[in-house]
Amino acid sequence: MRRPLEGIEGAVARVEKSGAPELLDGVEVQQYVVSADVAKLSDDLKSSVRSGAVPTVILYLYWIDADDLIHKAVLAEGDSRIEYSYEHWGEPVEVAAPPAEQVAQGVDLADLSG
Fold first, then answer.
1. Which of 14, 50, 62, 101 is the most exposed place for a label (fewest CB within 10 A)?
2. 0.85 surpassed by pTM
């Protein structure tokens, strides 16, 4: 699994606090807006940016608590938006591999965006 900021470290143009702290699932968080210069993204991330009219800047929105844990992240690329939720920090988890018939090999997610 990719770390939330992996691949954008060298591309960050600006980080700004946005608004007042708010409650998200009962936890006080602060929203931050991170602007990334597409031309400076890692090659891996550049290849995942949708083809066509490529924006020059991608916005990442993060909701971070007092322990610097991310509770929500949003990637905004043009009029597309991907939202991630992070919860149950520090709690044990159980992970089981899916059956072989539910596993895809060699799928390029960029091909699915049309």
1. 101
2. no
Query: Measured between alpha carbons, how far is 73 from 93 in angstroms, rounded to an integer?
Result: 21
CA distances from 108 to 23, 42, 82, 113 (A): 37, 17, 17, 10
Does residue 41 contact residue 11 with C-beta atoms inside 8 Å? Answer: yes
Q: Per-residue pLDDT tens for 56-100?
A: 777 889 999 999 999 999 987 777 888 999 988 999 999 999 999
The answer to whether the Cα torsion of 96, 84, 32, 3 is positive or negative is positive
Domain ranges of the chain: 9-89+96-112
In which residue are the tokens 């007042």 written? 20
